[in-house]
Specification:
alpha+beta, NADH Oxidase, four-stranded antiparallel sheet, disordered N terminus, binds flavin mononucleotide
Length: 254
């Protein structure tokens, strides 16, 4: 039986188990360049090592902050998140104000990550995605691609037909929340690759978050949150074995 234990991963990849190192960063930030082929790829064992190193951090060091460069990298990673139709139906609310974080603590089941982590991101999904949102996206795409907006009329029709008109409002809101979770996954992996700890969190009261952060007035609803920073050495979850179903149970080959 194959399990995703650290030793097993180390054995399979010759990677040292859980060293907790950040990958060496030789590359300068190079965020908007489009490449025709993948460059500067990392080794498979480095990827697995970092994915094993990451865990849902329970205890953050309240004295360690993510530096501006690393945070900028993570923001770029969030911006680069793919979404269905490219519609990006989200806003990422970055909460660093300690007073706001203190207000959010009791509506997050008192989970200490809320106030101890360096950064807290609320993934907010856009409410009631509609034709105006599609138009805004298509206009922007035309500008970025340097083409007249009329050239993208088929894209517009596809998005209006496939997303706006094919679903009622609750379904569209659920769709937007699903998209926000893609950004969450992207952030978690990106953070792990640069040696930053994170905890994805659903243990919070969405309505209260919406209220405290004034999200409804912006046409947004909180979907999920993530706290990020640096683990305390005392956090015993860091070394707990990964609990994952066996590969043969999870993968279905057709
Ligand atoms: C969407 C989502 C919501 C979660 N909510 C919480 C949470 O509110 N508090 C918490 O401590 N962990 C939370 N977790 C962490 C999971 O319990 C954890 O990811 C899972 O047990 C696997 O462990 P690992 O991430 O350490 O590998 C959440 C994870 C996900 C993906």
């Amino acid at each position: 039986m194959i399990t995703f234990s650290h030793d097993r991963i180390a054995e399979q990849t010759n990677a040292p188990a859980r060293t907790g190192r950040a990958l060496p960063r030789e590359r300068p930030l190079n965020i908007h360049r489009q490449t025709k082929q993948a460059m500067n790829t990392i080794q498979s064992n480095q990827l697995l090592e970092q994915l094993n190193w990451r865990y849902a951090t329970k205890q953050f060091d309240p004295n360690r902050k993510i530096n501006a460069r690393d945070w900028a990298t993570l923001e770029e990673a969030l911006l680069l998140t793919p979404s269905s139709g490219g519609l990006q139906p989200w806003r990422f609310i970055v909460v660093t104000d300690p007073a706001v974080r203190a207000k959010l603590l009791p509506v997050s089941y008192g989970q200490p990550q809320i106030t101890d982590a360096s950064h807290l991101v609320v993934f907010a999904a856009k409410d009631n995605i509609n034709e105006a949102d599609v138009d805004a996206h298509v206009r922007h795409a035309a500008k970025v691609q340097g083409v007249p907006v009329e050239n993208l009329s088929r894209l517009r029709d596809m998005l209006v037909g496939g997303i706006v008109k094919s679903m009622d409002e609750p379904a569209r809101n659920a769709w937007a929340r699903n998209q926000a979770y893609i950004a969450l996954g992207n952030l978690l992996t990106s953070a792990a690759l640069i040696g930053i700890d994170a905890c994805p969190m659903e243990g919070f009261d969405r309505a209260q978050y919406d209220e405290i952060l004034g999200l409804k007035a912006r046409g947004l609803s909180s979907a999920v949150i993530a706290t990020l920073g640096y683990r305390l050495p005392a956090d015993k979850y860091a070394t707990a074995p990964k609990v994952r179903f066996p590969r043969e149970q999870v993968f279905v080959n057709v």
